[in-house]
Every structure is written in structure tokens, then in C-alpha cells.
Design brief:
This protein is of the alpha+beta class. The chain has helices spanning 41-51, 93-102, 106-113, 122-132, 134-139, 146-154, 169-172, 187-194, 225-233, 285-294, 299-308, 347-373, 390-400, 412-426, 448-468, and strands at 2-8, 12-19, 25-32, 38-39, 61-66, 72-74, 84-85, 142-144, 166-168, 178-179, 184-185, 202-204, 209-212, 218-220, 223-224, 239-244, 248-251, 266-269, 275-281, 317-319, 336-338, 379-383, 404-407, 439-442. A hairpin with a 5-residue loop joins strand 2 (12-19) and strand 3. Helix 9 (225-233) crosses helix 14, helix 11 (299-308) packs across helix 12 and helix 12 crosses helix 13 (390-400).
Length: 470
């Protein structure tokens, strides 16, 4: 029996077709999404049809994992009102600060919804909509996340009374109006943000079949992309996963909900009934591609240049907040290069500084997860497109101060969605026990000086940003 998993990410849709019993991948497809920080959901549907051509109709069950936080607003007829605002759209930064103050500050938010909202969270986009597009806000009858909307379309969509709106607790936990600890919506918060009551989807059980496609395949509840990655990796308590994609994330599966008033650790739920504390950075893989472009090379060339330089890039340090940043919460920040001289200004050192900057930023994120857990991780797993860089793999242990496992390249978000679909078919208490993918192990001596220089530049520029109002 075959199951399909869908990863609808910022940049593309990926589909994997797997054997339900053991997760063996027997087919793959992909299709690009339009660039930008907002998108017409119809583009995701078109990409899903293209990526799934010849695959989806062979599946007995389908699961969708999607980019978190995106705001899809519907009118009373189920039609999309405006292009969806995506997780990396930072126009709602002022709304985020306003909402945090309005409801009693960071500790209140951490205690009530597990996370302190930043510009990524759906609730801040609702407040932005109310203030900047009031006519659209007044038309809004329901709000969905990207994976919710795609799951709905797979089950019939507008005009199909059997296709009720449904989500899962994992993706719901990234909205800012759902309590992971209580497992319940906070509709009062969504109403306060938008200015009037708004419909939210039903929260399905982790292994629930929520409907069927037109060709008769079961549809699972779906989840957010990070929750899908955890399920695809087989992440277990004690592990920390670090993903280098368009964004960077560090996350872990735990039995206890997070409660971090600093706002750095998002207290998400996972796709299995547990919790998924997560730290996200806006800047990750694009730091590498931007630097490669600046140096007139490609990603493989950048990796080779970085490995030809010495640790520490002869004193050059890059702060990689090229597009603002979420952790730390500095939406107006920009990239900063420090320590460049006529002596050290080489392509090799600039490439090395970029890779070290990316890893130092992600190591900061991982440290926050480890601190929240109160223990050292059993395993650090490095995944995502950026983990295919040999320089990233070889430099990571020194900057994470830990051995690092790099599982073989795979579409782990889509694989997790497929595993959830197989779980829905099986109806068992726990997901099917798919074998973990082979992983390469990397070790290396700690490089504390690199982390210290990164931290100093981070803190110095934070003071500058505060003085200049960025």
C-alpha cells in the first residue's frame, strides 16, 4: 500500500510517494512557488497538482505539511480574500509589539499560548490586516494556515459541505491564538487581533482521517513543516534537530510544553500529541547563496573557498541578519561585516566568515533549546538544503561544540507527512516504526573564539539598532 506526503514550503511543493509499511520512497515530484512574502494560495494548489502528477492518484492516503504561520483569510463563501501573508513577511512587526503589550507582556503570552508573538505569527498578521486593510478584515469569516487550506482543497474545498475546516495541534500552535498546553483555541485573542469574531478550523486528533480525496484516498490531519520534519526524522526526546533551509530552525520533541517569556523559544506542539519547542531564524540558506553570488560562484564553490581558509577567517566576522531577524527579535536589522582589512580580504575568508556566521547563529538557537530542556542533547541532527554543503558539515561540530549527525539527504518534511498519512490508515496509538535514514557523523575541536566574536558583534549591533531605532 502506498501513501503520499506533501511539503508545501515557501519556495516549492515536494511530493514523496512511500510504502506505508516501511517508508521506502518509490516516487518523487516537485514544482516551484512564486517568489515573495505573500502568495495566492491558488499557486500552491497548482504546484501540488504539478508535483503530484502521477503520484497522488496512486496513494491510499495523503498528508500535507506546510509552512507555518501563513495567514489565509476566507469570506463567508470560502473564497480567498487576499494573497496569503507568509511566515517571512515582517510587515506586522509593529502589530506584534502592540499585541504583546496589550495583553500583559511576554510572560502572559508564554503562559497562555506557549510563545511570545513576533512578526511571523498569524495573530500579528490579523492585527495588521485590521489596521491596514480594514475592508478585507471586515470580510474575513475564517482564517486558515497554508496546510489547512491545501487539506481542505484535497477534500473538496469551497461548496463541499463534507469538507469542514480542519487543522492539527502542531500547526495551530504557531498561530498565537492556540494553547498547546491546554490543547484548545483562544478565539478571544483572534477576535481581539482582527476586531471581530473569526472562524477557526477544528483541531483533529494526531492520527485522524479527516476526509477523502476525489479519487478516494484518505486525508490525514496534516501539520506544520517543522512538525513534519520531526516526524520524518523519527526525532525522539533527547535529540536536537537543526535545519538549514530558507529559514533556520532548532527544535526538539519533549513531553512538557515550553514556557519561555524571552520569546526566543516558541512553545509549539508536535504532530504526535507531544510538544516541539523551537527557535527560528529568518536567515539561513540564503546567507550562503547571497555570499556565493557576491563572490561570483555557486554553493559548491563557496564551500570549497570556505574550507580553504583557516578557522576564524583571519578575524573577519559576519552578522548574518541580511533580511532582519526573528531570533533575536530584530526585524529591522541588516548584515554587518567586521574585521576586514587589506591583509585578510580574500574570497576564501569571506566565504569562511559566511559559513561560520550561519552556524554561529544556528548554534545560538540550539543553545536556547538545550537551555530550555536543562540537559545536553543525546544527538544533534543537521538537516535541510544547507546541510548538503561540505563546509557546513565539517565546520558545524566546532561551532556547536558537539558531534553532529547528518542524515542522508531526504525531503524529511514530506516524509513526515507521508508517515502521518500511513499512521492515519493504520489507526495505531503511535506512528508506524519506519527505519531511520543512514547518517554521516562529523566531529571536530570546539572553536569558542568564533562564537565569542559572533556574540560580541551581535550584542554591539543590538545596542546600535536600539539607538538608531531599527
Amino acid at each position: 500500500m502506498l501513501v503520499a506526503g506533501v511539503d508545501s514550503s515557501t519556495q516549492s511543493t515536494k511530493v514523496v510517494l512511500c510504502e506505508a509499511e516501511n517508508g521506502t520512497v518509490v516516487g518523487r515530484g516537485s514544482a516551484p512557488h512564486p517568489a515573495g512574502t505573500e502568495a495566492d494560495p491558488a499557486a500552491w494548489w497548482a504546484a501540488l497538482q504539478q508535483a503530484g502528477d502521477g503520484l497522488l492518484d496512486r496513494a491510499a492516503a495523503v498528508g500535507v505539511a506546510g509552512q507555518q504561520h501563513g495567514m489565509v483569510v476566507l469570506d463567508t463563501g470560502g473564497e480567498v480574500i487576499r494573497p496569503a501573508l507568509l511566515w517571512n513577511d515582517l510587515r506586522s512587526a509593529a502589530a506584534a509589539a502592540e499585541l504583546v503589550t496589550e495583553f500583559g507582556g511576554p510572560q502572559w503570552w508564554a503562559s497562555n499560548v506557549g510563545s511570545v508573538p513576533t512578526a511571523s505569527f498569524t495573530i500579528t498578521k490579523l492585527r495588521w490586516l485590521a489596521k491596514h486593510e480594514p475592508r478585507h478584515a471586515l470580510r474575513t469569516s475564517a482564517v486558515l494556515l497554508p496546510h489547512d487550506w491545501l487539506t481542505w482543497r484535497l477534500r473538496g474545498g469551497p461548496g463541499d459541505p463534507a469538507a469542514d475546516l480542519v487543522t492539527d495541534r502542531g500547526d495551530a500552535s504557531g498561530t498565537g491564538y492556540f494553547s498547546p498546553a491546554a490543547g484548545a483555541w483562544r478565539p478571544d485573542l483572534a477576535e481581539a487581533a482582527l476586531g471581530h469574531p473569526v472562524g477557526v478550523p477544528r483541531v483533529a486528533r494526531p492520527a485522524e482521517v479527516v476526509g477523502h480525496t476525489g479519487w478516494g484516498a484518505a486525508v490525514s490531519a496534516g501539520t506544520g513543516d517543522n512538525m513534519g520534519a520531526a516526524l520524518g526524522l523519527g526525532l525522539r526526546p533527547g535529540d536536537v534537530a537543526v535545519s538549514v533551509g530558507t529559514s533556520g530552525t532548532a527544535f526538539a520533541v519533549t513531553e512538557v510544553a515550553a514556557d519561555d517569556p524571552s520569546g526566543a523559544v516558541a512553545g509549539f506542539a508536535d504532530a504526535t500529541g507531544r510538544f516541539l519547542p523551537l527557535v527560528c531564524t529568518i536567515n539561513a540558506g540564503l546567507v550562503l547563496s547571497a555570499t556565493a553570488s557576491m563572490l561570483g560562484t555557486d554553493l559548491d564553490g563557496l564551500s570549497a573557498l570556505a574550507l580553504a581558509a583557516q578557522p576564524g577567517a583571519e578575524g573577519i566576522t559576519l552578522l548574518p541578519y541580511l533580511d532582519g531577524e526573528r531570533t533575536p527579535d530584530r526585524p529591522g536589522a541588516t548584515g554587518v561585516l567586521r574585521g576586514i582589512t587589506t591583509r585578510n580580504a580574500s574570497q576564501e575568508n569571506l566565504a569562511r566568515a559566511a559559513v561560520e556566521a550561519l552556524l554561529a547563529s544556528l548554534a545560538d538557537a540550539a543553545d536556547r533549546i538545550i537551555g530550555a530542556e536543562g540537559r545536553a542533547p543525546d544527538r544533534v541532527l543537521l538537516i535541510g538544503g544547507g546541510a548538503r554543503s561540505e563546509a557546513v558539515r565539517r565546520l558545524a561540530p566546532g561551532i556547536f561544540f558537539s558531534s553532529v549527525l547528518v542524515p542522508e539527504p531526504e525531503e524529511y518534511v514530506a516524509l513526515g507527512a507521508a508517515r502521518q498519512a500511513a499512521w492515519a490508515l493504520a489507526g495505531t496509538p503511535e506512528p508506524p516504526d519506519w527505519p531511520q535514514r543512514p547518517a554521516a557523523s562529523y566531529t571536530g575541536p570546539p572553536q569558542p573564539a568564533i562564537r565569542e566574536r559572533h556574540a560580541a558583534l551581535r550584542d554591539d549591533t543590538a545596542a546600535w539598532d536600539e539607538r538608531t531605532g531599527l
